[in-house]
Write a structure and sequence with these properties.
alpha/beta
Length: about 500
């Protein structure tokens, strides 16, 4: 087996964390515990699920030691045997896992409780379970923040009792207090910052920053999580970092990690690297920025695969997604996947991953005409559920490769249009960022940031999944996935988001 060692290729770039889908992880865990697929279902060039487990440095086709896993999609009870969780629970101790807290589930009304009441039994139970789970499986854990937009959804507001911005702030403070008092062991905690605009974000920061202050707590939090406006507004990001430095809250050995939630644009992969390098050079040599997105998994749920990476000087940078082969006539076709999709005109461009290079088109288009699925019916799609897992693995490699390639080419002088201002003078983002963090005076740094405010306005933020939605996972659920007849009634309860559809799919597959 020839590995593509993505860990070795990471260099000093900001770190992308694949946001693991429990649907994908379940295939790895179930096979590890003797509950997996028939060996005949695997492509000849892959052979087993560990080849698709990037956290397995010895057996994976593409080892990569960083990931994120969310409490909102996990089995939180570590006392119970859960083979589907093995990819996370039994990971190599040399890997790094960031455990999100599930605040998004509160914001969507999926974890009902009176989160404004510190004594509410359901909220207290969930806090305890999430923190114990984080301490059991993670290197870093996020605090259980309540996004400030929660109250704008009437259903979520009713389920959570979060009726205002103030409620979200106060509920997050209750949760932070719980994390401060009950965190044990080696788990490091990231203090999540929220806020829907600059004023809210500044207010939130002033209220929450003390949890990272060693003068206020014997064991303060260990870094920062950037949510809300903080994760997608360069102007605000730079202001916040300057404040952290001058407030003594970005110190070496104490506050070494900052994570940006739901960040998918390739340009942001490069600008976060610029920021990381500037902070390392001028203040904290240990400082690391990470960012995550679930796009590789969400794209697959939409019937999409990454097929090309577009990086052009002064242009828009992106990973390209398209609908791919889904035709029963290919079920016995042994042609290499790339050769087949190009020959058939399904894609005009195709970049192989270690997964796609080792599978045939028939490995994806599994069902033959007339062949019945697990519930004894002939579906419209040629894909079985494992087809999705194969394409998810391909997409994960493509996304990591895209991020690393973008950084390599950026270092070689290829500049995305978003990170250069050429209206009057040629101004590069990295040069301005270096100026900001070279200053020893807070006011001077802030003045430079304000001087380039129009430049920041031209840098578009990121809001997670990009790419045209081809398949509606909610309405097409039963036609896409093999579910038991008695389970189909649960379809109406699916959340609108594709990620929730993926996790519910995993339960149906269980």
């Amino acid at each position: 087996m020839q590995q593509d060692n993505l860990t070795a290729k990471q260099k000093d770039y900001a770190v992308f964390l694949p946001a693991i889908s429990s649907f994908y992880a379940s295939y790895i865990g179930k096979e590890r515990h003797g509950l997996g697929l028939d060996p005949g279902r695997f492509p000849t060039g892959i052979g087993n699920m560990e080849a698709m487990n990037w956290l397995n440095a010895q057996e994976s086709l593409f080892p990569y030691k960083w990931s994120l896993y969310s409490a909102g999609h996990a089995n939180l009870d570590l006392s119970k045997f859960a083979p589907k969780e093995a990819m996370v629970r039994e990971r190599d101790p040399n890997t790094i896992m960031l455990a999100d807290s599930g605040g998004f589930q509160i914001a969507k009304g999926v974890w009902p409780a009176d989160w404004t009441n510190p004594a509410d039994k359901e909220a207290e139970k969930k806090r305890r379970m999430v923190l114990e789970w984080q301490m059991g499986i993670a290197t870093y854990g996020m605090t259980m923040d309540i996004p400030t937009w929660t109250f704008r959804d009437p259903k979520a507001a009713e389920a959570s009792n979060i009726r205002s911005y103030e409620d979200a702030v106060n509920a997050t403070k209750y949760n932070n207090e719980y994390w401060i008092k009950n965190r044990e062991g080696d788990l490091k905690i990231l203090n999540v910052l929220q806020g829907g605009n600059h004023a809210e974000a500044d207010h939130w920061y002033e209220l929450m920053k003390g949890y990272c202050d060693p003068d206020q707590h014997d064991r303060p939090f260990d870094g920062w999580g950037m949510g809300g406006q903080n994760m997608c507004d360069v102007h605000l990001v730079l202001k916040r970092l300057v404040s952290l430095i001058h407030d003594g809250l970005l110190e070496p050995g104490q506050h070494d990690w900052m994570h940006f939630l739901g960040t998918s644009k390739l340009e942001w992969a490069c600008l976060l690297t610029d920021i990381q390098r500037a902070v390392r050079a001028n203040h904290n040599p240990n400082f690391t920025i990470s960012f995550d997105c679930a796009s590789p998994f969400l794209a697959t749920a939409n019937g999409q695969v990454y097929n090309d990476i577009r990086i052009e000087d002064r242009g828009k940078w992106s990973y390209q997604m398209e609908p791919t082969a889904d035709n029963k006539k290919f079920s016995k076709d042994t042609r290499n996947f790339k050769d087949a999709v190009l020959a058939e005109g399904i894609h005009s461009l195709w970049e192989d991953s270690p997964i796609s290079a080792n599978m045939s088109i028939g490995d994806v288009c599994w069902y033959a005409p007339g062949e019945l699925n697990k519930v004894g019916k002939e579906g419209k799609t040629s894909w079985d559920s494992f087809s999705y897992a194969l394409l998810m693995g391909h997409n994960v490699w493509m996304h990591i490769e895209s991020v690393q390639r973008a950084n390599r080419m950026y270092d070689d002088g290829v500049i995305p249009g978003m990170l250069v201002q050429e209206t009057f003078d040629r101004i590069l983002f990295r040069d301005v960022v270096n100026q900001v963090f070279e200053q020893k005076d807070r006011a001077k740094s802030m003045a430079i940031i304000e001087q380039y405010s129009k430049f920041w306005d031209s840098i578009k933020g990121t809001r997670g999944f990009t790419g045209k939605k081809i398949v509606n996972a909610h309405s097409q659920f039963n036609s896409l996935f093999d579910v038991d007849e008695e389970d189909t009634a649960g379809e109406a309860e699916l959340d609108e988001t594709l990620l929730d559809a993926l996790e519910t799919m995993d339960e149906h597959q269980g």
